[in-house]
Amino acid sequence: MTRHTKPILAEVAARRDDLIALTQGLIRIPTLNPPGQNYRALVEWLGARLEASGFTVELIRATGAIGDSDRYPRWNLVARREGARPGDCVHFNSHHDVVEVGHGWTRDPFGGEVEGGRIYGRGACDMKGGLATSVIAAEAFIAARPDFKGAIEISATADEESGGYGGVAYLAEQGRFDPDRVQHVIIPEPLNKDRICLGHRGVWWAEIETQGRIAHGSMPFLGDSAIRHMGAVLEEMERTLYPLLASKRTEMPVVPEGAKQSTLNINSIHGGEREPDEDYTGFPAPCVADRCRIVIDRRFLIEEDISEVKAEVAALMERVKAERPGFVYEIRDMHEVIPTMTAEDAPVVTSTAAAIEKVLGQRPEYVVSPGTYDQKHIDRIGRLKNCIAYGPGILDLAHQPDEWIGIDDMIDSAGVMALVLDELL
Ligand SMILES: [Zn+2]
User: What gap in Å lies between CA 362 and CA 193, rounded to an integer?
Assistant: First the structure.
């Protein structure tokens, strides 16, 4: 620690109780998604606090976005604090929604209990703790350097857990992440306080349908089973596609190790008769299935092109078709995200790396996420490449029962974020 950084870190340390109270306050507003509860209550509560510390606060509803309705409006907060002189803008973006509680809790999921240096609750780690950390970092930095140049923005956005369309995507479409407005973005997702996440792999979701002809189950030769056709598709995937994907390795530092290759998950399979209602006690009817559908989730690497990813599956279907008389199929695109990776020499990366060394006395680890997060919208819609995920908390605890965040980890991360502001502003 140098004479220069000491006052900033002292301001962070002095806010320990404040950081705990802020995290608890956020946890105690259950912003469950789906369906998207209490979004307005959370942004109002946080907005009042940020206004009191000198930020200009806007509450923005993503009217008309996917998921937005009068019953469950998608509310977002953007707070901005101008410095004493012109300069860059550093933006901290956190999502304020949390996933369902699920089973297995031994604590009140919305109580914000503190014990043994941890704060417990749904969203403690993913990512209300990160949101609180960025607020404290900004307030501590401003107290230590009131004459800073540029601007600081803090956003709390909706719906990251369901794709971010009523949150970051909406704000990006409104120009909120245009490079002339915001120059550096940090997303405090829980990736451990000593790791910098540069980006994520790509995604292609598609539905594949095989078609057949319905007939009586006692005379299946009079029909054509869509399920048997799909069986042939799955067999061909095992025989050729999975080995091909396993052979593709990336230079991206993806964690965990298993995600350093291309992957494919089959999310669901449905064929034939609809599943009976729970209160139905009879037998199913004997029918040959005339439709079978699977939804595939293909995760791809920065070295792969999405057209090549799609072409592999199309070629596989054609191979099956060539071998099976009467084989009819359709592939329907559902959703796609291009991989993104911020360069290691981008300013937000180098300044965060330097700050981690100063606070933790070690060099950061650079990682890439196996799944996507809101960086996709900042990259694609906002066209801003200088963006990372960095924040306290252990990723494995996200979405689990008894989710928690370590208070010391938040303090360390707040110190890192405050020093990043010092470096960039
Ligand atoms: Zn998250």
Answer: 11
Q: How far apart are CA 232 and CA 218, in angstroms?
A: 22
Distance 160 CA to ligand 1 centre (A): 7
Looking at domain 6-200+339-424, its CATH class is: alpha beta
Q: How many CB atoms lie within 10 A of CB 107?
A: 18
Please state, rounded to an integer, the average pLDDT across all residues of the chain. 96
Contacts of 83 (CB under 8 A, 6+ apart): 147, 148, 149, 150, 151, 152, 425
User: Is 160 part of the annotated catalytic residue set?
Assistant: yes
CA distances from 414 to 55, 149, 192 (A): 18, 20, 12
pLDDT digits (tens, 9 = 90+) for 246-291: 999 999 999 989 999 999 999 999 999 988 898 999 998 999 999 9
Q: How far is the CA of 399 from the centre of ligand 1 (A)?
A: 9
Q: Which of 160, 209, 409, 412 is catalytic?
A: 160
- The SS3 assignment for 86 reads strand
- Is residue 115 annotated as a catalytic residue, yes or no? no
pLDDT for 382: 84
**Domain limits, CATH 3.40.630.10, in the chain:** 6-200+339-424
- Tokens representing 201 are 């792999």
Place of tokens 């909406």: 170
Q: What does pTM read for this prediction? A: 0.90
The one-letter amino acid code at 164 reads G
| d(C-alpha 106, C-alpha 126), whole Å | 18
Assign 94 to helix, strand or coil: strand
Residues of the chain within CATH 3.30.70.360 domain(s) are 202-337
Cα 46 to ligand 1 centroid, rounded to whole Å? 18
pLDDT digits (tens, 9 = 90+) for 214-248: 999 999 999 999 999 999 999 999 999 999 999 99
Distance (angstroms) between ligand 1 centre and the Cα of 322 equals 44
Across residues 31-46, what is the average pLDDT?
Answer: 97
Decide the pairing of beta strands 184-187 and 387-389.
parallel
| Options 11, 68, 97, 153, the catalytic residue | 97
Cα 128 to averaged position of ligand 1 atoms, centre (Å):
9
Range 202-337 classified under CATH 3.30.70.360: yes
Answer yes or no: is pLDDT of 1 > 70. no
